[in-house]
Amino acid sequence: MAAHVQHHPEDQEFTIDENGFGAELAYSQFDDTIDFTHTYVDEELRGKGLAETLAKAGLTYAREQGLKVRTSCEFMAGYVKQHHEYDDILA
Fold this sequence. Notes:
This protein has 91 residues and is α+β, with helices and mostly antiparallel strands. It has helices spanning 50-65, 74-82; strands at residues 5-8, 13-18, 21-30, 33-41, 68-71. It has one domain: Aminopeptidase (3-Layer(aba) Sandwich). The chain contains 2 helices and 5 strands; from the N terminus they run E-E-E-E-H-E-H. It has a 5-stranded mixed β-sheet. A hairpin with a 2-residue loop joins strand 3 and strand 4 (33-41). The relative contact order is 0.19.
């Protein structure tokens, strides 16, 4: 079963909730730039690829909105470094 990502623009985060546990990708958006600032996955959900699922959702959102991407979050910085399909939207 694929994880369902929810976007909460009012809180500037993407989240996944599964069986009472969660994962989140937080961001700050300003002008035409989005900065992914923090990724967290509850210990019970780690190793299931949820951080990658959140990364894809966040980067898809950035592309669809025409935003440039910054990655203050260490996980996101490593993710985009390994996935060159996002090079064109990096700030």
